[in-house]
Amino acid sequence: MTKTLCALFAGLALVSTAALAHAQTLPVPGVEAARDVAGAKEMPNPGIVHKVVFDMATEAKPTEVHPMLQAVARYVNTLAKTGVPAANRKVAVVFHQGATDYIMTGDAYKKRHDGQPNPNLGMIQALAKAGVDLRVCGQATLGRKIDAVDIMPEVQRDLWALTTIIALQQQGY
User: Fold this and answer.
1) Computed over its alpha carbons, how large is the radius of gyration of the chain?
2) What is the pTM of this model?
3) Whether pLDDT at 70 is above 70
4) How far apart, in whole angstroms, are the C-alpha atoms of residue 31 and residue 26?
């Protein structure tokens, strides 16, 4: 009985260690990949390039990470978890309209939002580190009076969200 319990605990320790090691290797730390679904038919294909653009235009709760950024992180981690190599993960996020302020540096965001810290700062940095292409609509930054120096360095400012989305679509996104 003691040997059986020891073997059981050793097996659980190995599974826990493997799960922890896997979680730490996901591209976006702190965000889980999609859970496994037994018998799922549609799965990410590791052999193709996944070109995806996320159109982020809505405002969210000012104290929480935007749900779309959470979804992007989960998607990137799911691709990685299912064996899609980094070179085959081409993911872009285009910020505009109500989501424009989220690309502001911490200090600039606090000035604009009565001292409220930008809840999206860490997630945007983590997504950039994971290879996600982050873009902001230049027209929206002009309309919101956001200076170029107040845009996070991880985010590229383009002419207009519409031109960015169309250009990415023309590239197969």
Assistant:
1) 20
2) 0.85
3) yes
4) 8
